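Query structure, 304 tokens:
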């Protein structure tokens, strides 16, 4: 998995070192672009921070719930038509942390499976359990399966008996109550299975709505992960890619990064001008102008 595959809204922690002092910065993913992961901007005394040295990054991916830890090559501020953000770059692939310790949920549902795409090998099975990492099934002794085989599993679950289809790889063979069983890894967790896991979590721990946890509403001045609801996410990515491409060649006379004994000195921190105004700021000013005009009209009627 690459850094630009991280889902929008994922929590991001940046562990960096400044002047031999460790700092932890919190932000949120917007979306992935070709050059890295776009995240919400991080400021220090009104100026944007910049880390050109490797930093330790921890991300809880919203898509699969896994935690990824890796080393970034840089974390730098970037300017787009939608405002200012930070871009996290990383050259290595991301691996989930503690992937073998993913919580398992028991299903014990009847299903069928076939091996290596061969319909002649269709056999009954019992889907024993499932996790973010994989699943295990109980098979009969007549089934001929070995480690490394690709299997396709189909089963139904829920009040509406929704049908789930899973493609997995056999990674180990064991037994459950003297019955042969297969441990399988799932490389691509589809939306259906993520929904099933969320259902099982709700059954085990209760609904979030009834847990007493109240979400804080997003204020107008906080940047949402959907930068422009009027266009698709893919089009937003294309536009941001265009903006980032323009910044590959620095403007003449652009400020250089200056190192000093105190990198946290606001005078030495890189920053990006807030001009011209972003689309959100322009829309907000337009709304305020309309309200002012409406108040002015009311005052004119009052004078009459």
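Result returned for the query:
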């Amino acid at each position: 998995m690459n850094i630009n595959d991280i889902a929008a809204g994922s929590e991001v922690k940046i562990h960096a070192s400044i002047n031999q002092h460790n700092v932890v910065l919190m932000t949120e993913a917007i979306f992935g672009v070709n050059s890295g992961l776009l995240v919400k901007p991080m400021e220090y005394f009104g100026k944007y921070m910049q880390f050109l040295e490797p930093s330790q990054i921890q991300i809880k991916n919203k898509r699969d719930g896994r935690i990824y830890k890796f080393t970034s090559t840089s974390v730098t501020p970037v300017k787009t038509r939608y405002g200012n953000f930070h871009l996290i770059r990383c050259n290595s692939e991301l691996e989930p942390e503690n992937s073998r310790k993913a919580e398992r949920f028991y299903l014990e549902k009847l299903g069928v499976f076939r091996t290596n795409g061969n319909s002649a090998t269709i056999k009954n099975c019992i889907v024993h359990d499932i996790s973010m990492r994989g699943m295990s099934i109980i098979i009969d002794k007549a089934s001929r399966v070995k480690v490394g085989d690709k299997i396709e599993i189909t089963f139904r679950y829920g009040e509406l008996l929704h049908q789930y289809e899973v493609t997995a790889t056999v990674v180990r063979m064991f037994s459950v109550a003297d019955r042969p069983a297969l441990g399988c890894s799932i490389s691509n967790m589809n939306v259906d299975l993520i929904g099933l896991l969320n259902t099982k979590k709700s059954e085990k721990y209760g609904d979030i709505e009834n847990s007493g946890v109240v979400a804080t509403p997003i204020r107008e001045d906080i940047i949402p992960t959907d930068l422009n609801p009027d266009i698709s996410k893919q089009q937003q990515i294309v536009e941001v890619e265009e903006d980032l491409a323009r910044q590959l060649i620095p403007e003449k006379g652009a400020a250089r990064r200056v190192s000093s004994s105190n990198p946290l000195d606001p005078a030495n921190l890189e920053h990006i001008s807030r001009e011209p105004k972003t689309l959100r700021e322009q829309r907000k000013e337009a709304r305020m102008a309309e309200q002012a005009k409406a108040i002015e009209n009311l005052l004119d009627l009052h004078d009459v």
